Amino acid sequence: MELTPIGILCFLAAILVIARPLSIGLFVLAAFLPLQTAAAVNLTSVGGTSLICAHILGGALVGAFMMRPKLAGDAIRDAAARPATLLLLLFVCYAVFSAFFMPKLFAGEINVYSLSRPSPTSNGISLSPLYPTTGNLTQSFYMTLNLFLFAIVAFIMSRRGGLRQATALINVITAVHIVFALLSVVPTFGPAAAILEFVRTANYSILSHHTIVGMKRIIGSYAEPSAFGSISMSLFAWNFIRFLQTRGLWYFVASGLLLICIVLSFSTTAYAVMSLLIILWSLHTVYTLIRRGLTSDHLTALFSSALASSLLIAFLFYEPLRLQAYALVEILFGQKMQSASGIERSAWNMQAINNFIQTGGLGVGLGSARTSSLATALLSNVGAIGAILYLAFLGSSFLRAGRREVKIEITRETIYARRLFVAARAGAIALLLSQMIAGGLIDAGLLFFVFAAIATSAYPERRKAPKSADPTLSGVTAPPLWYAKKQPKDELAALFSPQRRAPAE
């Protein structure tokens, strides 16, 4: 076991998470969450497995809840009443069962592309007979942690002032993500190089020197441009939606910087997800325009689109940039499937489908097979049962629309909840699309489940009356400034008038 320098800082932070109010622990976790190459411990005896700081702090947050029996009891009762948590629990239980049972049931009979790292003398990833590996253990740990984190975040966000904490939580994640993106742009600068070396301690292949059409691809605090681009796209979706809702300066600046991060990652996945989100957003805009008429949100969206299109056209008029853009598109899209990486990833997906058929739809077990899409990862690893449970969880957390036949009390809280539900759903959908395009694992990452938890707790038709503040949870007992009594009906009707925008937060 190898303890890294950042690991010492991580364990000190874990003590802080356990000892201090839980809202502080949540923000400590948020500060470490983007550092996906920061390993606290490298387990040399377990195939060189790296324990990432964010996972350790997530475990510390779970431990902090368990050390507070009353609060843990409230969280369990909240989880029992939340369909999304119960469905995720069923999925994780089945997935963990498959991780330990299926590799033994089909041992030696089926070939898979294993998650285990190849030996130093091997050339790439090759087919090997199915046997229990460390991947079954690590993926079971990650999915169990995702379950606990989802339940805890949803519980915290459903309490009074919780949604304000959700906003601050994503703001912290966004700020750390952008800071390390800037540091990776100038790694030759002394302090920047030292900070990146301090953070990049995991036993991963850090692809920090890749270039494309003569330009360097930035990876921030991640191991590769694809992961960095996907997270940047997800955070951009959240911040851009929040900008449309609030016209806030922070969201405007964050959206601009994240858009630059996406462009400079030169990630095919990020570019494809952005294209899909633009299509979905355009369809939704047309739908709302037909239903509610022209609003200030439509004007803002139209102005943003016109500005972005004008800048793109202006750049393409400059011949060197136009030629470079053509070369970039050809490399990222035209030659992608014919490249060695594209051929290899296609083989992973084909073998994953074969594994699903060979096991009669049962799957080879969580963490047994490597793929290049979340869809094939679900089918090959946890089979039809696991895939159905996972889809049910998605549908009960953020892939749903408000039911118009349900009447809810319209207050400033419910308006704020609607806004956060839309923003969190956008962030989660961006990550989901990234996983569907190029996800090799079922584990979509902690940020995905944070977004899903925020969307679940902010779902307007399920918002409950705010409970009394818990000093153990928030450290304060006074109600937040944004919480107010129900407004007069005539003022509330004006909030949703096509001619007026909801009041600034």
Quick structural gist:
With 505 residues, this protein is mainly α.
SSE blueprint:
Elements (H helix, E strand, L loop, with lengths): L1 E2 L1 H15 L2 H11 L6 E5 L5 E4 H14 L2 H12 L2 H23 L5 E3 L13 E3 L4 H24 L4 H24 L4 H10 L11 E2 L2 E2 L8 H22 L2 H17 L2 H25 L3 H21 L2 H16 L5 H19 L15 H24 L14 H27 L7 H13 L12 H4 L14 H7 L10
Antiparallel strand pairs: 1-2, 2-3, 4-5, 6-7
Helix pairs in contact: 1-2, 1-3, 2-3, 2-7, 3-6, 4-6, 5-6, 5-15, 6-17, 7-10, 9-10, 9-11, 9-16, 11-16, 14-15, 16-17
Instruction: Name the assembly state.
Output: single chain
Question: Main sheet: which strands, in order across?
Answer: 1-2-3
Number of helices: 19
Overall geometric form: globular
Rg, Cα atoms, Å: 23 Å
Number of strands: 7
Task: Describe the fold and architecture.
Helices cover 65% and strands 4% of the residues. The protein has 505 residues and is mainly α. Strand 6 and strand 7 form a beta hairpin. The C terminus is likely disordered.
Question: Which key features would you list for this structure?
Answer:
65% helix, mainly alpha, globular, single chain, three-stranded antiparallel sheet, 505 residues
